Amino acid sequence: MTDPNQVQSDDLESDPVTSPPQTGHAAIDDALLGLADLASAPLSDHHDRLANAHEALHQTLERSDDRPENAEPR
Question: Is position 55 within any domain?
């Protein structure tokens, strides 16, 4: 008889990690890559990975505000 509270190892398997979408912006692509395997990373790593991705996205978006409205997209 199995204990219903015992988690089976099959229950913990996740889908294979897929590549994050490529945006063409190196900082954003790196941030997304750092989150690609978050589900399989130790919980203790989650905060730092999420914080790093948040900071990269925040800095990128903040810099985009500096561009003039009529500027050509890069």
Answer: yes
